[in-house]
Specification:
The complex is a heterodimer of chains A (224) and B (496). By secondary structure, chain A is mainly α. Chain A has a single domain, classed as Fumarate Reductase Cytochrome B subunit (Up-down Bundle), CATH 1.20.950. Helix content of chain A is 70%, strand content 1%. In chain A, helix 1 packs parallel to helix 9, helix 2 runs antiparallel to helix 4 and helix 3 runs antiparallel to helix 7. The radius of gyration of chain A is 20 Å and the shape is globular. Chain B has 496 residues and is an alpha+beta fold. Chain B contains 22 helices and 15 strands. In chain B, helix 17 crosses helix 19. The chains are: A mainly alpha (224), B alpha+beta (496). At the A-B interface, helix 2, helix 5 and strand 1 of A face helix 3 and strand 8 of B. One iron/sulfur cluster (SF4) binds next to helix 1 and strand 7 of chain B.
Chain lengths: 224, 496
Amino acid sequence: MIDLFLFGIFPYIALVILIGGSIWRYATKQFTFSSLSSQFLEGRLLFWGSVPWHYGIIVILIGHLIGIFIPSGVMAFNRIPLRLYILEGTALALGLLLMVGLVLLLVRRSTSPRIRRVTSTMDIVLLVALLLQVLSGIGTAVFYRWGSAWFPQTATPYLWSLATFSPKVEYVTSLPLLMQVHTANSFVLLAIFPFTRMVHMLSIPISYLWRPSQIVVWYRRQAR
Amino acid sequence: MDVRAQVATVFHLDKCIGCHTCSIACKNLWTSREGAEYMWLNNVETKPGTGYPTQWEDQTKYQGGWEVKGKSLKLRLGRRLGVLSNLFFNPNLPIMDDYYEPWTYTYEHLFNAPPSSEQPTARPISKVTGKFMDIEAGPNWDDDLGGSPVYARNDPNLADLSDAERAALFRLEQLVFFYIPRICNHCLNPGCLAACPSAAIYKRAEDGIVLVNQDKCRGWRFCVSGCPYKKVYYNWMAGKSEKCILCYPRMETGQAPACFHSCVGRIRYLGVLLYDAERIEEVAKSPETEMVAAQRSLILDPKDPTVIAAARMNGINDEWIGAAKKSPVYRFVKEWALALPLHAEFRTLPTLFYVPPLLPIAASSKRGKYDLTDGEFFSSLEDSRIPIRYMARLFSCGNEEIIKTAIKKLWAVRTYMRAASVGDISDQRATSAMSELGCTPEEAREIARLTSLPRWSDRFVIPPYQREDVIQQLTSPIGHKAQVGFGSNVPVRRGP
Ligand code: SF4
Ligand code: SF4
């Protein structure tokens, strides 16, 4: 029963909260969309925490997306064992990098008096949830090798079953507990997304690469 | 020709008494909020000195402004992809300690302290952490050369001077300083704007005021680095960047900006300039020594019929063109060539200009006592206590001719007026000083009048904004409030 809720129903709830919540927040409180950077108050630990974390998570997320959308590609790539080892080794290294980054960020949040002043409860909740996600990911990579080989046969079909509204929870429930935690926690992360500083992901300023270098706004020609 | 209007400003440094009234007026109005305590949108610096934030002029440290690379103009921060790759940690960001940690005192302890044999004291507590703190720096820590071995000696502008000149500058009997009040320059080629990844900063076309859209700002802080004058500040509580808004809500109702209005020395002038926006990039790329002249050439004559026609084409109405004709800024900057931009070599084309202070002469001690009457009172540039090279670094990108001409003209005007009013200088000497510079007696009288006897309406020629016609009636006032650079519609809540 709990399995059905966690892996069959909760994902949909999380998705609705994610989308509805983000739209609501953007529409009513756009002012609160910010990176909420605290580099101004403390920079040294931030560098060692933030840079590894952000670059690591970008690569890891892209890896997960590739596994979900082109599983056959991953399988084909892994056919040569050496490639599999390199892929898994890189993923594990990145996972460890993420862990170090997160731990540093947590230490920084709890030790620097200046940073504590701008730390909300949600910031801590988020960091702990992310750490749980990273640790369960690392654990999976270490204890249940080789993830990139079985991910396309379990996680991918499970997610596709979710996408087609016929959730097949047995894909997840047959996996080890660590993997179940990883999966459930990922939906938790989606559900809390709109209420945390993670919303800054929605404003990745890619358009900076091509926008004009000066912006002049006429009130009279307000269309712009 | 693409004519645009700019509300531009002149500060006459000879009149600044360093009272900081301007800073306080601004602070009370705009930045007495949590997260903004450390911000001084208007600040007054003692020169020589390191300024605020400390050593802001040293762009090898902060990488603000533009540079010419090959044939193109680039932000010193780097190319756009490079900027984005620093999104997670901005290596060129001044941090709180480069400004100062704001504090207050435990005043209530003075009233609530239990009886004891000692006087109670009010200890400083941090406005950030709320804990007791040792104050290490504060706003104007180096006011009037306070702590000059640490501050004044590290002024980045001293790099051009010889060791002997530097030593002379700090000899006790020669010590000299002057003030530079600073606000955002509302540049024509703003570095802050070009560096903003979210495109939240914009220049208002009607008056050229540069604003940060508070709803669009995502707190990436590249504007803080991109501005070579460090006139964008990061609100550490709200996670948004804020800057001087030239009190546009006051100007839209016909009032002068608060710092201008309150200025005790009446050093501040404000008026409209018309300029050719098509040439911005070309001028910003000028060689350093020609920068000041090039920027002057960008400013158009508001009495020229072709300029007027082109201005009308661009939707600048006749009231604004009329205001441009009466602009004191146009006179000081273009007609009289007395007001110069601060550090134009940063290439942002600032629209705040400074009339340089008259250089104090060095006293001589030839006869065993200090003597000021030796030689002429308003005498040679070479004898000045502040080396001309230092002034050139500040106001004319190192081009000494430009600053010399401006200072000579100020002297000539003084000499002329002294001859006219006191009469202890011969007319002939007074006029010869002026004719050398091509300055007519009428012009000298005009300069003297606008310098020492201006009325409010001479100093501030504020164009009629006619907002009621211009802002579309359908704009939601609440949405509008958030988009125009200041304040928020939602409470800023952060922290435990
Ligand atoms: S002085 Fe003002 S307009 Fe110029 S770059 Fe700095 S913040 Fe922007
Ligand atoms: S109020 Fe005027 S005179 Fe006083 S410090 Fe400011 S600019 Fe100078």
